[in-house]
Batch of 2 targets.
Target 1
Amino acid sequence: MLQDPDLILQCRQVTKQVTTGEKTLDILQPIDLRVKPGETVAIIGASGSGKTTLLSLLAGLDTPSQGEIYLKNEPLHKYDEEQRSAIRAKHVGFIFQSFLLINSLTALENVMLPAELAGDEQAQQRAMDMLEKVGLADRAEHFPSQLSGGEQQRVAIARAFISSPDILFADEPTGNLDSKTGETVSKLLFELNQQQGTTLVLVTHDNELAAQCQRQLLMHAGELQETVKAMAEVV
Amino acid sequence: MMSVWATQSWRLFRHELKRGELTIIAIALIIAVASVFSLSGFSAQIKSALIQQSNSFIAADRVLQSSRPVDEKFLAKADEMGLEQAQLLQFSSMVFAGDDMVLGSVKAVSNGYPLRGNLLVAQPDGAGSLQVSVAQVPTSGYAYVGESLLRILELNVGDGFELGNSEFVIAGVIDKEPDASFSVFTSGPRVIIHMDDVAATGIVQPGSRLTYKYLFAGESIEEYSRWAKPQVLETQRFRDIKGQQSPLANALNRAESYLSLASMLGIILAAVAVSVASRRYGQRHQPMVAVYKSIGASSFFIRKLYLLHWGALAGISILVGLLIGYGIQYLGIQFMADVVPDVTLTLSAYPLLVAIFTGVICAVAFAIAPMRQLIATPAISVIRGFAGFERRLTWLERMPPLLAVVVLLWLFSQNLLLTGALILGAAVIVSILLVVGHLLINAGRSVGSQAGQAFHLSMANLKRRAKANQVQLVSFTIAIQLLLLMLVVRNDLIDEWQAQLPDNTPNQFLVNVSQSQVPAVEAFLQQQGLVASDLYPIVRGRLSAINEEQVRRRVSKEQEDASEQGRRGIGRELNLTWHRDIPKENEIVDGTWFDNDNPKAEVSVEQELAKRLQIGVGDTLTFQIGSESVTMPVTSIRTVNWQSMQPNFYMIFSESVLADFPATYIAAIYVPGLQKSEFQDFLQQYPTISIIDVDAIIAQLRTVISQVSLAVEFILILVLIAGALVLIAQVQASMEERERELAILRTLGAKGSLLTNSVLLEFVILGAIAGVLGSLSMEIGVFILQTQVFDMSVSIHWPYWILGTILGAVVVGVLGMASCYRLLKLSSLTLIRRTL
């Protein structure tokens, strides 16, 4: 076991293959990655390069075909769906491109959700505080369909941070927003991230957003390369 | 404090209910429960009211008939159960008045007779004229007599006559005897005396041919029947109004079938609605499950959450369904009050239980598969989306809904034949649908490529979503089919039934017409222009051997249970006739009718009797007629419509066999009210001719039919609601995918009018295809019903094909547009935002 206890996220020789019909496709070539606590990492790359697949493996939503993934020293690759669920509940927060709020719950109830699942008795108060932080306290009782895209993503951010996750995964968090709203949302994301000292792993097309992260990784045809800020401008 | 899953579940439930997201599934469940509750309660009450009314035709709820006094235990048990009782003793005996005499058909009755219906007797009022009123049993020493007795013996009310050793005074003329024999073969004028007078007449001797009838009526009659039936001896018969081979019994049984059928169609439709809506429920909740899981909720948590959510939904829906069902029952009974005065709204346990059970079974059986799929939604769907995760259901997973429908239908109708016919029909229909639907959508695609742009786009859409559309098509088709089937039942089948009792249905039977009177009777009928059946000669004879094997040995319990005529025909004497042409309403099913140019000794046998005796064309039968014995081959097997008010025969011979035997004749005649007095005058000249008045039975038959038709109409409304719900639920289920497509097309620059037209066309085409398929499957359904359940001739219903197709196109088109209207009105930006 070569895991480094100082790393929050580590993967070794992780691959992913998908079988469609008789063909087997290699989505990810063997990938190694080490992320320290508090680091912000952007994974950039063209569509179909495999970046979202990698994100889903890192977050424990899916399992690799080969290789090892450790999140907070937990061997995700060995765990079944239920165990990975428990790890996510404890350590992970999410922000999705399509927001994925629960339509039948109010903004406040959506934000409360992770805290409630974690058994936090102050869930409601903390959710109100979070909404305050993202500037939506007055929209607490609104349902997602009554909110604009930017507002929905702010609610999603509040939901992601409420249980102070150790690591936050964001999948194209500004992808569905116009550039101005996108800016507001990303600003909020990094602010909260800094306040809570959360590790952030985000997948994006948006170079400006990627540039705000400490590290940029380039995904190309299933291979991951560390890149410098300047190079990111080129991609 | 509530646990987290319960809080979440309740919170979702509360919001979704308020926001109308559960409306469709709730309404589907409510309709299933409400319709089962109202229909089973309602039709049970209509049925029991009909039977109650009809019971007057046997003067009781049940009759135990025997040729000897029955065991005391039957009477003691009835006493114990608080049933009303009365006894009858029937026999034939000579009635004397001076030098005249006639063979009378005597009925001795005990106090209390009749238990159901009324005995109407014309008795002298104070002013000396006869007044018809409801009469009690005659007091000792007095008798009520049939009018023909007065004619034959030239007596008047107040005169006396002798019967055995006793003398009786005529107290009145029988106007209506509730349980007058349905058999046209009873003869001899009726004499009713009190049971207490029988002994004194000295007529009842060992060896006398007697019929004892024990009448029972009361609330616990069903329970009594269950107790009594197994104890009834082979020589005894225990029967209710439906257990006889009479037109009325047939009508009642058929009425029951119609009511059950109509209600079952409603239940199937409601079940389809629940099934469609629960699928939709599952799909709609998938994103929620994925989000819950991505945040770290366990499967166990999700399972508990949805168990509660679904449970609360089902529980509340069932409750509301019961309330609404009760309301519908109330309305229905108000609606029927004019025609069925005896119906009252009573809350009985069985419909309530069946309704609750229906709700539970629907909620469980139809939810299992969608729920399992829902709970299995993987967390990764938050990234990959929900397409492709829906597994194909295994056969095992498809079974619960099918089983549920079978159980429900059977529970509801308690009629295996109907249930089987419906299920078989449904299976055939669904398989045809899947194949034909696929072919049609494919065919449309190639036509579409040559048609306009909107048409092309809509066909492309249909084709692309072929699989989803197949499911939609099946449910649209089933909805349309059941609606059409209901309409056909309401209109054609009931009309056809009604047509079997036209206005000039014979209402009088002439019996005992002698050979010498035949010309006079024929002349009278012609002169009065009366509609009559042919005159049929009757020769009494006994079937003595089949293929030269003595027949006695073949008599079994089954035959003892058969109808009055059938039993006498086999066990005792049979009414034989000969006829040159095949009678109306008879149909040869095997062999050929007599060749009159080439006269031979032949016999034609009724199908059911032939089955019971296990005889077919080619067997030879030997009959004992008087002292002679005749043998002839069976050359044809016939069906007989026992519902027709015509003289019907088990055995019809070729002329050469019976022509030389002395015969009496019978005929059925329709005598309109206005001509009744001429008819009476004519009969006055021929006192030996008896008439049997069946007006009352015909009136009751008509009532049964009109009540059933009204009740079916009422059920039709419920079926319509359920049908509309299926359509709405199905259209709604496809909304999300449509939303995504519209967004894409909009983005690609499709004009609003093009999108509107293509959506409209897509639904119209889908609806029209469903209409055609619905009509086709309706026709299959009707065929199964006509041939297997109602014994009717097969017919095709073209107008309904047109109606079905147009109805399908218009209704599905309108519903589809109405549901998409909101989407079509959205700006492309909003659409894209909402969906991508």
Target 2
Amino acid sequence: MRLLVLEGAGLAIPDSVIASIEPGSRIGPGADRGAPWLADLVHGQKLTPTPTSSSEPVRRTLQLQGGGAVEVPATMHIVDHVELLELSNLLRPHDASGAILGVIELPEGLSLVCDPRRLLAQGAPDR
Amino acid sequence: MTTSTQPGSIALMPVALGGHHVAVDALTVLEILGPREWVPIPHTPPLLRGALAWRGRAVGVFDLGPALRAPALEPPHTRSRNAVLRVGEDTLVMSVDRVLEVRAVESHAIKPVHATRWLVERGMPCRGELEFDGDVIPVLNLEAWASLHRSGR
């Protein structure tokens, strides 16, 4: 499995669901409001990062296969041939969207693997 | 883990968490792990906090801390001991401070919940309670907890 790991977010996305990676919106005063922040969608609450300067490019936009887009941290890397640890039955049905696909073990720690398209289908939290 | 018991007796494994002791059926214990890394999973009930990696699967991390009014587990590290438990057809990991020696007790020594009713009222079903080293400790009913959990979806 090939995954895009979003550094510092504890999240990874299957490479197969990503159509393209584009510059994201800038945050801060007067910033435009782009696609939903992925961590907000995953956790169902607003976790959007606080800007450290008005023009800091901390985001990128992932255009998704089949339409839709999410914003993610700008720092990311690809991992190949990583084993997806499936959620046990007790955990799985609590994710109503089915967007949490499992967990991966990386040198930097455990990360959730999610499918942003399913999160978008479920709807964004209040922004 | 293998535990032999006499007819009419039950093997219990006491664990310590936040100054409290609780007991679980020792026959459900698959393995005791040291500290591990875990990851929170959103939209889980309070006692089921997230997952850790165990034998190629992501198994649920069960945190009794809030029910015992002990500090909740904080990512990324578990407490110092993790009991991997078979619950029905599933597996979960109960993260605790210490695991004590398994002991066989007579079934009739497990009394209906009375002194430890507060734990049931905080959402943790118990099979009963037991005198343990001068204290009365609850015997958890994780099967019932899992059933509640599943039916509550």
